[in-house]
Protein 1
Amino acid sequence: MAKEKIILTGDRPTGRLHIGHYVGSLRRRVELQNSGLYDKTFVFIADAQALTDNMENPEKVRQNVIEVALDYLACGLDPAKSTIFIQSQIPELCELTFYYMDLVTVSRLQRNPTVKTEIQMRNFETSIPVGFFTYPISQAADITAFRATTVPVGEDQEPMIEQAREIVRRFNFIYGDTLVEPEILLPDNAACLRLPGTDGKAKMSKSLGNCIYLSDTADEVQKKVKSMYTDPNHLRVQDPGKIEGNTVFTYLDAFCRPEHFERYLPDYPSLEELKAHYQRGGLGDMKVKGFLNNIMQETLEPIRNRRKEFEKDIPAIYEMLRKGCETARETAAATLDDVRRAMKINYFDDAELIAEQVKKFSAE
Ligand code: ATP
Ligand code: MG
C-alpha cells in the first residue's frame, strides 16, 4: 500500500490569529485540505504548548481556544475534511514526548535557533521552564503521533521539523521502522515565510502586539495600515524610497494579485512598476497604503463575515472540537500501540513474552 499523505499543523491559543498565520500557514492548509491530494488533514490548537510559557495565565489560553477555532472555520477549514482538535485532550502526546526525551540531548535542544530567540523574547535566560525548553520534543510527538508526512508552516518552524526528523530517524534506527519522517512545506512566496509586524519588526507575532488580526474590524485594519512602518527616510513624495525592509511592500508581495491593480490602481500595470516608481521618487506612502488597505479589506471581509456566522452557535464549535478530539485520540492511540510494541513495553498484549518467560523459568 502506498504511504498515506497526511497533513498536520497547529497554532498556539495565545491570541486571535493574524495575517502572518494566514500567509505563513493557514491559507495553504485550506488549499491543501481542498486539493484532494491528501488522505487526511489534522489541525490542532496547541494549548499544552501555549501553557509552557503562559503557565501562570491559564485563563488566557482557555479563552483563546475558541478564538482560534473560530479563525480556522472563518478561513475555510472544514471539519468534514479536517480533524480539528485540542492538544491537551490527547494524553498519548505526553506519553510519546516522554519517550522521545530519551532520544534528544540537552545540547541539541540548546542549539535550536528559534527556541534561542524565543527564550530571549520572554526573558527566560536565567530561568527557562523545562517544559518550554523541551517543546520541540513535544512538537515532534504532535507530528509523528498522526504519522504526518507534510507540515505546512512558517519559516520559524524549520528547526522544529528538523528536530522531529532526527527523532524519527533515531527511533526507527534503535527500535525498528515505526515512525514516519515528516517534510516541511514552506510558503512559496518569500514575503510569507516570516511576515513582519506592522511596526517593521522581523515577525508579526501575537506576543509582540504588532498584528493585523483576521477578526479586526474594517476600521481597525485601515488604522493599522495607515500607521504602518515604511521607509523612515522617505519624507517627501518626490524623494526616492526604499522597498527593502518596507513593510507595506512586503505585505503587497504577500497579498497583491494582478487583478487588484485593475480594481484599485489601474494606472499601474504591475507591482514591479509600482515599486519602480516608489524607488524613483514621486509616489507617496499614503497612495501605496490606500492600495494595500483595499487589498486587505477585500481579503479579510469574507473571513470576518464567516466568523460572525460561526459566532452565532458557540456550542456547535465546542461540539465540533470534541468530535475532533475523539478522532484524533483514536489515531494517536494506534500509533502509541506501535511505539510501545517497538520499545518492548507492551507487556500485556504480547503472548510470546509470557510463553518465553514460562520457558525460561521452567528450564531452571
Ligand atoms: P506566539 O507569539 O504565541 O508564539 P505566533 O504569532 O508566533 O504566536 P504560533 O501559534 O507560534 O504564532 O505559530 C503558528 C503558525 O503560524 C506557525 O506555522 C508559524 O510558522 C506561523 N506564523 C506565525 N507567525 C508568522 C509570521 N509572522 N509569518 C509567517 N508565518 C507565521
Ligand atoms: Mg510562535
Protein 2
Amino acid sequence: MTRSYRFPADFVWGAATSAYQIEGSPLADGAGPSIWRRFAHTPGMMANGDTGDIACDHYRRYKDDVQLMRALGLQSYRFSVAWGRVLPDGIGRINPKGLDFYSRLVDELLENDIEPTATLFHWDLPAALDDRGGWLNRDSAQWFAEYAEVLFKALDGRVKRWYTINEPWVVTDGGYLHGALAPGHRNKYEAPIATHNLMRASGAGIQAYRAVGHHEIGVVFNIEPKYPASNRPEDIAATRRAHAYMNEQFADPALLGTYPPELKEIFGDAWPDFPAEDFQLTKQPVDFVGINYYTRSVVRHDDAAYPTKASPVRQRNKTHTETGWEVYEKGLGDTLKWFKDRYGDIPLYVTENGAAFYDPPVAESDVVEDPLRTAYLRTHLRALHECIESGVNLKGYYAWSLLDNLEWSLGFSKRFGLYHVNFETQERTPKASAKFYAQVIESQGAVLSK
Ligand code: BGC
C-alpha cells in the first residue's frame, strides 16, 4: 500500500524572504543605511560587486509579489523588517514612511488571505548602531527592545506571529569571527560578546512583547546536525564541539539559560564568564521556535580548523547544492527530534528550507525546469511528515525562498527561489518547483506519495 503523506489540516504552508535580500531601495523614504548596505558598497566584499540597491525591487513591487504568493496558494508569508527603515538611527526618531511600507505589505497579505509572520532582525543592523559598537555594545539589547516595541505597537493584531532574531550563529560566525558577512570583523574576542548580546537582545524583545503584544513570539535558529566521520574518539569529540559551536551556542542560552561547556574549550580565554543574571534575560519563555534547516555536516578532528578544530568531510556520491551543501533530508528529521529531546515539547516551525541549484535560462517556455530543487522539496517534506507522525510538534513549513534573491556576499549567483527572477528586467517566472509546491499545498501533502 502506498504511504499517505497528508499533513494535519491546521499545518501552515508558507515561504520566506528577508528584507535586504529582496527589497531594494535601501535608502528610500528616509530609511537609514544598514551595515549590509555599507558592506555591499565596500569594494571586494560581494561576488561580482552585487548589492541590494535594487535586488528584487520588492519595495516597489510588493503587490505583484503577493500575487505570486497567492498563485502558490501560500497560507503564510515570512518576511523581515529592515530596522533602519523604521528607525533610521536605530533608536529614537521613528520614520513613519518606513513603518508604513510594512503596514501596507501586511494589509496586502491579509486582503489576499495570507497570514503575515514577521522577523524583526535578519542581519541588517542600522549602520548608526554599528557606529556605537553594534552587537558588541551591551546596550544593543535595549536598542532592539525599543525597535521591537515600535513594531509591536504598530502591527500586532495584524501580525500574530513574530520572530526576534534570525540565525544568530550566522551573525556571530560570519559577521564577527570570519568576516565574510557584515560587519566583516575577524576577532575571536568579539564573537562571544556578539553571541551573548544577540541572545540578550532576543530575550529583551520577547520581554517587550509580553508587555504590549497579544499573540505569539519566538526566535529562529539555523540548526545543522553534526555526525562523526568515524568512531575514533577524537572525531566524536570534534563532532561535539562543532555541534556546541553552531547549534547549542544559541539555543541553550535561549531555552536552558546556560552555554554548553565546549565553548570554553573552543574559545579559551576569549570566552568570558558572563554575569549569571544575564541568563534570566536570555531565557524568556517562547511560544514557538523557528528552525532553518539546509544541510548536515560529517565531522573529523582537524587541528587547523578554526575555531572548533573540527572539519567537515565532503560526502562522496551524494548530491550537493550550488552552495556546496550535501542534500540530506534525514538530517531534518534528526534535527527536529534532537530539538525536542533537548529542549522539550516546544511548538516548532521550519522557517527556512531550500536549495540553490543551477537553473537553465528562461526560454520560451513559461516554466523553469528545476528537477533537483523539486526533488529536494519532495524528500524534505516527506521527512517532515514522518517527523510529525513520530510525535514532533511541528506546526508549519516555510520554503526558502519565494524569489531568487541576493544571497548575501555571494550576490545573485546562487538561486534559491521558487520563482526565477531576471535581475535585468525584474521579470518573475515560476519554476517547476513552484508548481510542485502549489500542488503539495493544495493536496495538503497527498501529492508527496507520488
Ligand atoms: C538565511 C538566508 C539565506 C539562506 C541560504 C539562511 O542562512 O536565513 O538569509 O539566504 O540561509 O543561505
